[in-house]
């Protein structure tokens, strides 16, 4: 969710900087100001293309659920978090479980993802007996 908010913030900052570059270009007529405006428009378009579909899915509650055997590994990022691995698919989550995990420990997983971007919303780990070991809800 923090990444989604960051894309929106960067996108709006680029739109604001575009207006600033255009106003400076009108008074100075320098090529660097015009190129800055073009570059900031391109970055804003990329940011909005990444943020809009995920925001749309989250706002309308358009989620899909995947279940099956998985294992959980630490994704070694500075922000922390884990990566859930199904057969060949992987999904990153910031919520770290309070159970022993690693490639040798299999769980029954239920993962909720947005439909368009397949970004992780929450996940649940169950034991072989069906007991809930961890839930990120």
Q: How is the main sheet built?
A: 6 strands, antiparallel
Strand order of the largest sheet: 3-2-1-4-5-6
Question: What is the structural class?
Answer: alpha+beta
Fraction of residues in β-strands: 25-35%
DSSP summary: helix tally: 2
**H-E order:** HHEEEEEE
CA radius of gyration is 21 Å
- Average pLDDT works out at 84
Q: What overall form do the CA principal axes indicate?
A: elongated
Quick summary:
This protein is an alpha+beta fold and about 140 residues long. It has 2 helices and 6 strands. Helix 1 runs antiparallel to helix 2.
Structural descriptors:
137 residues; single chain; alpha+beta
List the helices and strands and how they pair.
Elements lengths: L1 H27 L2 H30 L2 E12 L7 E4 L4 E4 L13 E8 L5 E7 L5 E4 L2
Antiparallel strand pairs: 1-2, 1-4, 2-3, 4-5, 5-6
What does this 3D model show about the protein?
This protein has helices at 2-28, 31-60; strands spanning 63-74, 82-85, 90-93, 107-114, 120-126, 132-135. The two termini are 14 Å apart. The chain is an alpha+beta fold and 137 residues long. A 6-stranded antiparallel β-sheet has the order 3-2-1-4-5-6.
